[in-house]
Every structure is written in structure tokens, then in C-alpha cells.
Amino acid sequence: MSSALVIPCHIRTRWDLNCLLRLLDSVRDQSTPFARVYVVDDASPLKYSLADRDVEYVALETNGGPARARNVAVAKALAARHELVFFTDHDCILDPDWHGHMARFLSDTDFAAVGGMTYSWGSTLLDRYHEINGTLAGKWLLPERRELWYMPSLNFGMKAYAAQEFPFDERFPHAAGEDVDLCLRLRSKYRIGLCAPAKLWHDFGYSSTVTGFWRFIKLFMKYKSSSATLYEGHTVLMWDASESIFEGNQHEPDLRPEDEAPRDGTSISGLRRRDQALRQEIGKPGPLGAHGRTEVHRVVHLPVVQDTSSSLLRCQGQ
Q1: Which of 36, 203, 205, 315: disulfide with 195, CB 3.0–4.6 Å?
Q2: pLDDT tens readout for residues 240-269
Q3: Is residue 64 a contact partner of residue 170, using CB atoms and an 8 Å limit?
Q4: Nearest Cα residue to 127 out of 193, 235, 216
Q5: Nearest one of 98, 80, 96 to 157, comparing CA atoms
Q6: Which of 275, 295, 272 is nearest to 126 (CA)?
């Protein structure tokens, strides 16, 4: 099946731009290439060029939010007759096999949409909290755990018919709540599956636990800002039972990306070294922290809840 990748972005700082370039490196090194990659710039204040990248760059004149930016790219993907449409964000890093796993899952099952596993790129206590809390992880629909209640749009894909029938609601002006809204509408007719082997990392941008705390607070304030719009259209939010796909896995052993076997192309550890170089270039502290002292925290990359039920449809690893 022909696949398109949609990346909305609003580039305000050099750090944002470096994140986008790092993401595109991981897109380039996918073991299963995308047929088309759409980068939709949502009227960014920082000007830049992607002329040397194999992407279709779309520049919007006015800022309308990521929901609108994604819809612009989805319309292009559907017009080009791509059968699968995937989504991620500019501050993510894709595992080399992310697209292969996600595309195979949609091709081999009757699920209309799919999500993967999202881990924190950083190593602060704040990043650790996001992994335990499942801030950007999908949620199981309880009690069966056979499908997802929702999946954040940074690690998401849909079959073309679902993408055409269920666009993002452009009333959501920020990256908050628009993906929950889409998933709840989509679930009125279709199901969302989990492909556990499909991994990506999200960079929350915390320089250290202390200096990143205000950024941490503002993130949840942004999420809360969408609550009124969400509850207006989805009173089911008050009684639907769900839980993070990380629930119950606190005792799994460490799995650091750099410990995984090297692959052709740019490895995750190579992207980490490049990221450190870029941080130094723009004067942004890395994991050493704001005062040059090393922060040593145990970060567990938690796998999906284990369920041995034979009736549970789940993507199988190679």
C-alpha cells in the first residue's frame, strides 16, 4: 500500500528547526520508505529552507493550528491516492522500522487506524514522569483492552477512507485535544489498533529537571485549555473507562535506544550524538544540566501491557 507521512510544524526557534531536521533524518532512514512526505509549515516566524530534503513543503500564509495543517496535507495525500496516511510531530524521532510496522499492521488487519509506542527522548525526571504517566501514550479501551480508546497524533496512522471521513476539527487552535476528538469520532464507526513494535521518541525539550519544570507545567496548562471544546462534543469522556498502555509495566528492565543493535543508515545513538552537537551549537544545555552536573536517572522504556489472550489482536514483531 502507498503511504504518505504528514508533519505539521510551527518553527519558532533554532531548537525547533533542529528538531525538524533530526526528524527528517529518521524519516530518510526508514527501512520501508514513504511514498510521499508532507511538511506543512503553519506560518512559522522563523524562516528556513528544506530544498535539500526529499519532501513536499507546504507553507501556509496564516497560522491556523496543527489540525488545519494536517488537513491540508491529508487532502493532498488523498488526491494523490495514497492508501495509508501517517502522522508525527517535528520534535519526534522515528525508529527505523516505525513505518514498516505501522503499514504492515494496517494492511494485515481490519483496524481503520493504528498507534505505536511513544518514549521520552530525554533523561530527566520530567521525561521519566511522562513515560510512567503515559502523557503521550495511547489508552486502552477497558475492560477488554482489544482496541485503543485514543492515540495521540504524533504516533498515528489511518487508512485513506477513515482519513477522508474523519478530518481533524479545526476549531482546536493548538496541539491539544484535537487528536482525542478525532479518535472519539472515528471510534463511532471504526476501531483503532495498537502496533507495539512501532516505536518513536518524543523530545519534550527539558534541559534538566529543575530548569525544565516551568516548561513541564505549561505543557499541561496547554492540554487543559482544550477541555471545554472536548467536553462540548464528547460527553462520553465522563464515563468511558480507559488506561494508559504503560500501566502495570513499572518493573520491566531498562531498554535504552542506544543499546539496540546497529542498523543501516543513521542509528538512534547517532541521532543522539548529533543532537548533542546541535544543542552545543545553539547554547542549549543537554542532559548534563544547566550547571554542568550530570543528571543520572533510570529511564525505563516500558513495553505494552502483556495480555496472553488469544483473542487480543496485536501487531506481532518480526
Answers
A1: 315
A2: 555 667 643 333 333 334 444 444 445 666
A3: yes
A4: 216
A5: 98
A6: 295
Beta bridge partners of 87: 6, 156
Give the mean pLDDT of the chain: 79
**Based on C-alpha coordinates, what's the Rg of the chain?**
19
β strands within 138-296, DSSP E? 139-141, 148-150, 156-159, 192-202, 242-244
3-state DSSP of 45-106: CCCCCCCCCCCEEEEECCCCCHHHHHHHHHHHHHHCCCCEEEECCCCEEECCCHHHHHHHHH
pTM over 0.70: yes
Please state, in angstroms and as integers, the Cα–Cα distance from residue 290 to each residue in 98, 128, 209, 286, following that order. Answer: 33, 18, 9, 8
Helix axes 14-28, 268-282, angle to 10 degrees: 160
95 vs 30: CA distance, rounded Å:
8
Q: Tell me whether the omega of the peptide bond preceding residue 143 falls within 30 degrees of 0, making it cis.
A: yes
**Do the beta carbons of residue 102 and residue 192 sit within 8 Å?**
no
Residue type (1 letter), 35: A
